[in-house]
Amino acid sequence: MDIDKLIKGNKKFQNVNFPKLESKFDDLIENGQKPTILFVGCSDSRVVPDLIVDSKPGDMFILRNNRILRWR
Asked: What is the pLDDT of residues 1-39, one digit of tens each?
């Protein structure tokens, strides 16, 4: 992926996706975030928590870790 594609994607977000979610973002600014779900996942770029569970901004706190945890 090159920088031009990232810029194009950001413009699409601003023009298409953000207007659909603007009231949600305004609500998060006004009332703060209160996610009820903690999603712990890996940092693998193929795993997109918001996409695979169809969540919206502010629904989940996402922790992505690239270290293997060993329990003793």
From this structure: 899 999 999 999 999 999 999 999 999 999 998 899 999
Reported in sequence order, the residue ranges of 1-72 that DSSP labels E, i.e. its strands, are 37-42, 60-65
Residues 18 and 38 in one domain: no
CB atoms within 10 A of CB 9: 12
**Around 68, how many Cα atoms within 13 Å sit in the side-chain half-sphere?**
2
Whether residues 19 and 42 share a domain: the answer is no
What is the model's pTM? 0.63
